[in-house]
């Protein structure tokens, strides 16, 4: 699809994993897109987006944000210049920048920071965000509430809210690999078709819904819901048939969040495609009556309409959009869940791991690693005695003489017995030295009591 066929020339900027996947799907539909992510793992699979438009914005040494919105914020802010440089190159001539992100993630929940960066470009900003399922964690829900509130407080052309809780209802049998892919395709293709009404289908305009009409409703500020549906009509279109289908689309809104107060809508759009035979049998007053009914339901919204005659047979197709709505009840429910689950989780995170009471076992000892202590002097004496004992057995008489001499200042029975054993040494010099030392030991022993009594 060529970009010039669209009512509005949109450039898509995806932040985080969810936003990147949306940007990739828009790129498949012919839109210019850039993906920003703190995770290189998520970026590499975005095959419809050129490599130059896949920007890794993680901090040095980090891959991803781990649901930590503060870490994600630091990452987004740190790469402001790179982001602005890339977006400026793509945004030339754009009517709107559509920013996409998942509000529950650590990266995507900082979409408001990206809005602040891009606002000075002077191009209207539209935001497409997702909110988490009821089964997701308290961290994810708290991130989503913080992120969404920051986005709502920003100056935006519109806000589109996708409810991940509804994916399970619409695609209950989807495989794990196709689950989010099919959901993204549904949202992106519906919006892409709406942005191409009058060009996308082989049709002839009876009442035109032109680009300026689309701009007014789509960029009306506040929350926008849109959808499309087919109706099998064999005879003619009635007001009841159209109104019933419109309310069904508004109430369910495909994957968009639900629970809106229709009276807050300021603008509405209804575009009808029908085969020639159906239009020929239908009253010209249908749309006038339908407009009056929509004005009553919305309490005065301006209604933009379009009627197109299909050149080939087929079911009647209806596109509709409501603009400038207030936040839906689903967001109020999400806030309540985030408050309860988030507080419970925060308390668990703060809780200290309890220690054990070891009173009953603290006195128990099973192994004694420390031998009886002895001083350095004692250790030296033991080492010296071992050395002397080895000399006494040595074949070298000089070492045996040295051994006897080493006992010169010794005393006590053990020293005397050791020296006496050497009186029988085969070498005469050793025997003489042993006799001399033995006399000295005797003198030492006789002198000890006298010194003790002095």
Residues in helix, %: 40-55%
Strand residues, percent: 15-25%
How far is the N terminus from the C terminus?
120 Å
What is the total tally of β strands? Answer: 11
Structural account:
With about 450 residues, the protein is α/β, with parallel strands linked by helices. It folds into 3 domains: about 1-195, 3-Layer(aba) Sandwich (Rossmann fold), CATH 3.40.50.1440; about 200-355, 2-Layer Sandwich (60s Ribosomal Protein L30, Chain: A); about 375-445, Leucine-rich Repeat Variant (Alpha Horseshoe), CATH 1.25.10. Helices cover about 45% and strands about 15% of the residues. The protein is built from 17 helices and 11 strands. Strands 3-2-1-4-5-6 form a 6-stranded parallel β-sheet. Strands 7-10-9-11-8 form a 5-stranded mixed β-sheet, sandwiched between helices. β5, α6 (about 140-150) and β6 (about 160-165) form a beta-alpha-beta unit. α1 (about 15-30) packs across α8 (about 180-195), α15 (about 395-405) runs parallel beside α17 (about 430-454) and α16 packs antiparallel against α17. The N and C termini lie far apart (about 120 Å). The model is unreliable at about 370-380 and about 450-454 (pLDDT under 50).
């Amino acid at each position: 699809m060529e970009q010039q066929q669209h009512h509005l020339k949109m450039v898509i900027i995806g932040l985080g994993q969810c936003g990147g996947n949306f940007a990739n799907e828009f790129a498949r539909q012919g839109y210019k897109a850039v993906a920003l992510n703190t995770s290189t793992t998520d970026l590499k699979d975005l095959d419809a987006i050129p490599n130059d438009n896949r920007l890794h914005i993680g901090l040095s040494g980090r891959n991803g944000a781990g649901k930590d919105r503060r870490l994600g914020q630091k990452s987004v802010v740190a790469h402001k210049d790179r982001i602005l440089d890339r977006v400026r190159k793509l945004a030339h001539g754009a009517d709107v920048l559509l920013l996409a992100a998942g509000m529950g993630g650590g990266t995507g929940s900082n979409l408001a920071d990206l809005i602040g960066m891009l606002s000075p470009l002077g191009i209207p900003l539209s935001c497409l965000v997702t909110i988490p399922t009821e089964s997701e964690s308290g961290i994810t829900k708290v991130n989503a509430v913080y992120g969404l509130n920051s986005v709502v407080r920003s100056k935006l052309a519109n806000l589109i809210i996708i409810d991940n809780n509804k994916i399970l209802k619409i695609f209950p049998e989807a495989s794990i690999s196709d689950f989010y892919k099919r959901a993204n395709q549904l949202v992106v293709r519906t919006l892409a078709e709406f942005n191409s009404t009058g060009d996308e289908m082989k049709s002839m305009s009876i009442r035109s819904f032109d680009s300026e009409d689309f701009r007014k409703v789509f960029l009306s500020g506040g929350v926008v819901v849109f959808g499309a549906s087919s109706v099998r009509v064999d005879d003619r279109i009635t007001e009841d048939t159209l109104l019933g289908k419109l309310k069904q689309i508004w109430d369910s809104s495909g994957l968009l969040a639900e629970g809106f107060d229709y009276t807050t809508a300021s603008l509405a759009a209804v575009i009808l495609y029908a085969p020639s035979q159906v239009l020929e049998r239908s009253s010209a007053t249908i749309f006038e009556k339908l407009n009056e009914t929509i004005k009553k339901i919305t309490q005065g919204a301006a209604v933009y309409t379009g009627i197109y005659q299909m050149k080939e047979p087929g079911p009647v197709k209806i596109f509709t959009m409501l603009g400038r709505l207030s936040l839906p009840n689903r967001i109020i429910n999400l806030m309540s869940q985030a408050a309860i689950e988030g507080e419970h989780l925060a308390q668990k995170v703060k809780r200290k791991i309890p220690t054990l009471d070891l009173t009953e076992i603290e006195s128990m000892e099973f192994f004694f690693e420390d031998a009886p202590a002895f001083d350095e002097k004692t250790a030296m004496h033991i080492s010296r005695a071992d050395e002397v004992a080895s000399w006494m057995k040595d074949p070298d008489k000089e070492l045996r003489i040295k051994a006897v001499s080493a006992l010169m200042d010794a005393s006590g029975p053990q020293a005397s017995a050791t020296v006496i054993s050497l009186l029988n040494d085969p070498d005469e010099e050793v025997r003489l030295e042993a006799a001399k030392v033995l006399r000295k030991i005797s003198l030492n022993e006789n002198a000890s009591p006298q010194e003790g009594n002095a």
